[in-house]
Amino acid sequence: MARILILMYHILDRPMSEQEARFCCTPEYFSEQMKYLANSDYELLTLDQIEETIKGQRHQERPGVAITFDDGFSDFHQNALPILNQWKVPATLFIVSRRIGESNDWMHSRGFPKRPLLSLEQLLEVRDAGITIGSHTCTHARLSEISPDKEKLDEELQTSKQELEEILEQEVRHFAYPYGLYDAETVTAVKQAGYATACSVRSGFNRKGIDPHLLRRLEIYGSDTLWHFRQKLKFGVNDMSYSFPLKYYASRILQRIS
Which of 23, 127, 164, 237 could bond to 10 as cystine, CB 3.0-4.6 Å? Predict the structure, then answer.
């Protein structure tokens, strides 16, 4: 089976502060990246297809890439959706179910700029455009910190799924851990809630046999040029410096001759 990458984005806009710059990919950079993928040898995948592949239910010959967005910022509707449609790239958007039409309170309470999240009308338009909608809990909770409270944990996982399914009138099968935080109890609860897959923020490639509830993702930073983007796809790491490829190949040579 060929290796599969899942890419993670947050805000598709210019940064309003230095603090949020890492999480902001500009529309220009994103358009370059999607154009590259659309014209490359990568197979563009949905999370449903990835689930089938890692379970051995689907054959994957070419390297695969999936696009995901966390949090559900309104700029997805304005900036990302037209680009995804232009290049025919499938994507998954993870929504905080009780923050629809509100703002990123979990971020601006820590000094980040206040940004609007998708309205109900925008979310339904995104659904109708063919974007897969997944859950990101009810309130963007730190799940590993609340996991001892099983009732609260189940509410964040099960209730968010139910709320989104009622709004969307379709099954919600995929999940992403807020902040990338999870523990053994969290993973078990995610499975019991009925999610087919769950995305972490641990970098690397996904291959047949990996736990579908601990999928790996590469974070695309706001500062990533097309060169950085292509190298991340090649090496499967988050932090990509201009010297990384040289160091990587040098270490491989040393391993062979030692």
Answer: 23
The whole-model pTM stands at 0.93
Nearest to 100 by CA among 168, 147, 169: 168
Per the CB < 8 A criterion, the answer to whether 66 and 152 are in contact is no
Mean pLDDT of 151-157: 96
Write the CB contacts of 235 (distance below 8 Å, at least 6 apart in sequence). Answer: 244, 245, 248
- Contact yes or no for 158/114 (Cβ under 8 A): no
Q: What is the pLDDT of residues 2-53, one digit of tens each?
A: 899 999 999 999 999 999 999 999 999 999 999 999 999 999 999 999 999 9
CATH of 4-257, one of 3.20.20.370, 3.40.5.60, 1.10.10.10, 3.40.109.10: 3.20.20.370
Mean pLDDT along residues 131-160: 97
Three-state SS at 65 = strand
What pLDDT was estimated at residue 258? Answer: 57
CA–CA distance, 251 with 247 (Å, rounded to integer)? 6
| Cβ(147)–Cβ(189) below 8 Å | yes
The string over 9-39, giving b where at least 16 C-beta atoms fall within 10 Å of a residue's C-beta and e elsewhere, is: bbbbbebeeeebebbbbebebbbebbeebee
Would the pLDDT of 249 be above 60?
A: no
